[in-house]
Amino acid sequence: MEETESGNARIADARTRETVEPAEGQGEHGSGRRLGSGGEGADNPRKADTPLTWDPAKYQAYADLRDRPFFDLTARVGAEAPRRVVDLGCGSGHLTAALAGRWPDAEVIGLDSSPEMIEQARGLDGAPGNLRFDLAAIEDWMPDAATDVVVSNAALQWVPGHTELLSTWAAALAPGAWLAFQIPGNFDAPSHALMRALADSERWRPKLDGVLRHADAVAPLSDYLDLLLSAGWEADAWATAYQQVLQGEDPVLEWVRGTGFRPVMQALDAADLAEFEASYSAALRAAYPRRAWGTLFPFRRLFVVGHKPEQRRDT
């Protein structure tokens, strides 16, 4: 059990780890955030071209907990002197800045499709000189010959068909490149199941039908491992269940307001949203009871790190 301080609230964070081991002989090792692109859970195929509005301050409300998976992921990337590092779905940019600090001689680029996030990122205080941010969607990006590291943290679940993108990137990246991504693996958790069930109720289905995406937002962890190993990469894949302790009133609702609940927030008017939230928050309080020390909110995340060998391994 580790303890960190977050503002005036103490957050305890423990985790369990389940690992899909690399195959024998293998070494270790703008976002597309739109309605209709999935999420920590959401999809609306009727509004696939409608950008999803993001609130950087709301997303960063639990920065200590949201940031930890990024560092758990990138710690497994073994690149020593990459030429270009790309962070796909960079959000507010502070984690991309950490990549620029780690590799000061690399060109580090953060991409996100949210104008709000990119505006926040471009205003970072003390940003390294080797860092820049571009407004762009993940599905429109392709690596070039100088791209040596690609990182994506909690973004690919917003991109339908991202497994095909991963296959394309794996083929296009140069030998020696690294590809690392983290996505949520908690679509069957009460926080998401309750939201979907309420949205599918007789009261809300006419207004929210198709707004929330289901478990198909991500593939099974083993599929990502198979994708990279079959492409001749060395790969490591694992799942971590973070045992997050949140503080405050309705903390799970506050958490999802920063991520997977945003499509509902955008689809409903103020009066309807207040009514939906009243029912949803009551269900969340029952599923995640508040205790003297806080509210336990387990969150499972999937991690994949791949390294493209200088020469393709024999099959």
UniProtKB/TrEMBL annotation:
<dbReference type="InterPro" id="IPR023149">
    <property type="entry name" value="Trans_acon_MeTrfase_C"/>
</dbReference>
<comment type="similarity">
    <text>Belongs to the methyltransferase superfamily. Tam family.</text>
</comment>
<dbReference type="InterPro" id="IPR023506">
    <property type="entry name" value="Trans-aconitate_MeTrfase"/>
</dbReference>
<dbReference type="GO" id="GO:0005737">
    <property type="term" value="C:cytoplasm"/>
</dbReference>
<dbReference type="GO" id="GO:0032259">
    <property type="term" value="P:methylation"/>
</dbReference>
<protein>
    <recommendedName>
        <fullName>Trans-aconitate 2-methyltransferase</fullName>
        <ecNumber>2.1.1.144</ecNumber>
    </recommendedName>
</protein>
<dbReference type="GO" id="GO:0030798">
    <property type="term" value="F:trans-aconitate 2-methyltransferase activity"/>
</dbReference>
<keyword id="KW-0489">Methyltransferase</keyword>
<keyword id="KW-0963">Cytoplasm</keyword>
<keyword id="KW-0808">Transferase</keyword>
<feature type="compositionally biased region" description="Basic and acidic residues">
    <location>
        <begin position="12"/>
        <end position="31"/>
    </location>
</feature>
<comment type="function">
    <text>Catalyzes the S-adenosylmethionine monomethyl esterification of trans-aconitate.</text>
</comment>
<dbReference type="InterPro" id="IPR029063">
    <property type="entry name" value="SAM-dependent_MTases_sf"/>
</dbReference>
<keyword id="KW-0949">S-adenosyl-L-methionine</keyword>
<feature type="region of interest" description="Disordered">
    <location>
        <begin position="1"/>
        <end position="52"/>
    </location>
</feature>
<dbReference type="Pfam" id="PF13489">
    <property type="entry name" value="Methyltransf_23"/>
</dbReference>
